[in-house]
Every structure is written in structure tokens, then in C-alpha cells.
Amino acid sequence: MKKILTTLLFSVICIASFAQIPGNDFGYDEYNSRRRDLFKKLPPITRQDIVFLGNSITDGCEWNELFGNSHIKNRGISGDHAEWMIDRLEGICKGQPKKLFLMIGINDLGAHVSADSTAMFVIRVLDSLQSGTPRTKIYLQSILPNNDSIRRKSAFLMPEIIEVNKQIKKAAEERGITYIDLYSVMVIPGTMELNPLYTYDGLHMNGTGYDVWRDAMMKYVK
User: Could you tell me which residues are beta bridge partners of residue 74?
Assistant: First the structure.
């Protein structure tokens, strides 16, 4: 009986966290909607699972194969925004996963959302997760650098990425959340540009980039 009451309490907290932002007010594209619907049909997340949550950079990897761990579940959606993500967390919270790795925010900046507002939305995601699934060990990954020599749209994002990372790192530390600085792993030293060895378009990872990412994350996943 105590276990049932505890589960119900977590569900109430989780649902309350998402009531702050209405569900379909952001004009999700077809892919976003399809992924959201798919996640509802897949086997539910459990307390043995490790969730990777994010946008296309997360969506684009077979994390369970990369780490050799069948309990890893990919909940990335290409094009997703931190502002949009809050209202799709309920299914994750219900499962109370063992660990969760979050990376989000670059698409907010790409849509000309300010660094302060982007950081605020990322922090709201963190707070919703902490309240909705308190047993989960949460890891916040920094936003990755872009490379303007490959992706011409990225120059205006570079200072904003650094500022968002600064703010969300501080928020993570204040909340007892582990912050993983992947920006420093992926950047060309002395610049603000993503190492071209790790990308094919200046934004998304290639196979080598995901290998480097895995190596930086291994101790946290294991």
C-alpha cells in the first residue's frame, strides 16, 4: 500500500510540473509530433533505464549500441527546444529512470531566443525533472560549440552558447545536479568553434564526434 501511495504521489507531482506550459501551443513540426507519439507507444521507461534526452544531436545517435547497454533509451527529438520539452516529460517521470542525461538549448538560440531566456527554459526542465522524478540521477550536459567555417549561420550563436552554459552550470551546481562540460571536449582550443574532426555540418556530430562524446561520458553512464 505504501508503495502504491508513493507512486501516485510521484505521478501527481510529475503532472503538476507540466501543467505550467500547455501542450500544443508551439507549432511542433511533423517529425516532433511523430516522435512524441512514438514515445507514448514504446515500452514504458523503468527504474533500470538510462534516458538520453535532447534534440537532434541526441536523436542522431544509437546510444544503447554505442555504450553496449540495452537499458539506455533515446528520447531525443530533432529540432526540439527547451521551451517545448517541458510538456513531454511526463512519460519519463512516470518511469522514474535510474539516470537521465539532458542536452538542450541550441535550437532556442537558433530561433533567436535570448541567452537568458534559453537558460531559464533549460532550468525549468531541470526543475520539472527533479520534482517529477526525484529518484533519478540527473546529468546536465553543456551545449556544444558550433563551427562557423562550416555552418555559416552559427557565428551569432557562439557567445550566447558560452553564456547559456555559464548560467545552466551554476543552476545545476545549486541543485546538486552533475554538470558535464562537453563544450570544452569538443571545441578547438583557444577558439569558440566545434572541432571539424567531430562534425559533418558544423552542428551535428559525425561518428568520430559520438565516439569522443561516449568516452567523455563513460564514467557517468557506467
Answer: 52
